[in-house]
Design brief:
It is built from ten helices and 21 strands. It is α+β, with helices and mostly antiparallel strands and about 350 residues long. It has a nine-stranded mixed beta sheet with strand order 1-21-19-13-15-17-18-8-20. Helices cover about 20% and strands about 20% of the residues. The two termini are about 40 Å apart. The radius of gyration is 21 Å and the shape is globular. It binds acetylphosphate.
Length: about 350
């Protein structure tokens, strides 16, 4: 396939991993990088970095996203739940079988590269069009739910399944913002981030998956499924996506993925009031649209961050595949850190 664009956005890497690339910086998770990560395993202890997927609870943090709803599958118009086959046959088995309606970005999640695109003049005709990482377009690369007979939506390119197929394994590196900045809301720019990296002697290497511990997910957990949106909006560190030096560092550091335990990695207004002329979420634009860096959000990092601090460490083996769900633009996951 020929290149999909005539001009690429300033500061983007479109084409650098190939004209048809759909993985972005995950290309840096090479076998050498996995071996480097495995060398960080010394205690043999594993941490789940997922919230229970029915947290935060309710939908005050994002009115579009609802908690998962579990129900039983049905057979012969009866729920297959505590179902005794003995009623039909001479057997001892009892079966439960279920299904879920799940907002894929409700809780601990990855954003796929199809999650955020932009209006940009990639074909150099003087008019902006909707375009995604590496020049993929709504037509033919996405199906809009209003345009399909069954209301299905689908990213035919840049879906989360490409990430899943890699296994997503490599060196995770923790930057413990909470330890230094506490639980009050703070917009963390380049200077604040560098101060923590230097004070804690964190080595961020090319191809690392960077994890930012802010304490947000721990606070969400403490709210026991009834999140206080006003308090959360005033709590914990968020990256300041408007900081040009921070954005430059995200690019130049060579990180393969950017992960946080807060709501959206960067400061995100809880209500969208964009004027359409700039990116409302500049780090989403940089990472997902320009550089192909997947974003991890609402990961539960506190127990791991505290363990690493107690043991004077910051690096670990991270295994974090999303669901291999073709066409999805995000996915819940249960990331595992091994230390
Ligand atoms: C939006 O809120 C748009 O997405 P995210 O889940 O990445 O913060």
């Amino acid at each position: 396939m020929a290149r999909r664009w005539k001009q690429r956005p300033d500061g983007s890497n479109w084409g650098d991993f190939g004209d048809d690339d759909q993985l972005g910086r995950l290309n840096l998770l090479t076998p050498q990088k996995v071996l480097e990560a495995v060398a960080e395993v010394r205690a043999g202890q594993a941490f789940s970095l997922s919230l229970p997927l029915d947290f935060p609870g309710g939908n005050v943090l994002n009115p579009a996203r609802h908690p998962p709803r579990l129900t039983a599958t049905r057979r012969d118009d009866k729920p297959v739940f505590l179902h005794s086959f003995a009623h039909d046959h001479n057997t001892t088995d009892v079966a439960c079988d279920d299904m879920v309606t799940l907002c894929l970005q409700y809780s601990t999640q990855w954003d796929a590269l199809s999650h955020i695109g932009s209006h940009f003049d990639a074909d150099q005709d003087g008019r902006d069009e909707i375009v995604f990482y590496n020049g993929y377009r709504p037509d033919p690369d996405f199906s809009h739910p209003d345009a399909t007979p069954d209301g299905a939506s689908r990213a035919h390119r840049l879906g989360i399944e490409h990430m899943a197929a890699t296994g997503v394994q490599g060196r995770g590196v923790m930057v413990d913002l909470r330890h230094h900045y506490g639980d009050a809301r703070r917009r963390v720019g380049y200077d604040d981030l560098m101060a923590v990296i230097e004070r804690d002697g964190v080595q961020v290497r090319r191809g690392d998956m960077l994890c930012l511990h802010t304490g947000f997910a721990e606070m969400v957990l403490s709210m026991q499924g009834r999140p206080d949106a006003a308090r959360l909006a005033q709590s914990c560190a968020v990256l300041d996506g408007s900081d040009v030096r921070l954005r430059r560092w995200v690019d130049e550091s060579g990180i393969a993925a950017l992960i946080a335990d807060n709501y959206a990695v960067e400061d995100r207004p809880y209500d969208f009031h964009g004027d359409g002329c700039h990116a409302l979420l500049p780090l989403h634009e940089l990472c997902l649209f320009k550089l192909g860096i997947h974003l991890g959000e609402l990961w539960h990092l506190t127990p791991l961050a505290e363990w690493l601090r107690r043991h004077g460490r910051h690096a670990f083996l991270l295994t974090a595949p999303p669901l291999r769900l073709p066409g999805a633009v995000g996915s819940p996951l249960n990331p595992v850190a091994t230390v």
